Amino acid sequence: MPNAGFRILVIEDDQGIRELLVEVLVQEGYQAACAENGERALERLAAGEQADVLLLDLMMPVMDGLTFLARLRAHPHPRLAALPVIVATAGGPLLEARAIGAVAVLSKPVDLALLLRTVERACESAG
Question: pTM for this one?
């Protein structure tokens, strides 16, 4: 499978959406993992979990997506600071997400075909 080497970290607080996105990505040949909020995602990445692209919700408890994105971009490790981030959200500060460095902003409910094309482009630019 052409996508098999790419790792996607889904950062989403809604368990049903999280599981659906991981399932769709795995079916397309990606390696996919998930985190329920920005704080948990940062912990996993700082601990060495590998990801090529992040799929991020903006509106989450504990640490919202915008705070996560700002902390990621300010991270002292260059690999983490430069990770491509795709925002998928039902609302929130979309322009701010783009300004902080989201490579794409998608509205929920996400069109899965559009999401997969966006992930593919992000992986191509990352890899």
Answer: 0.92
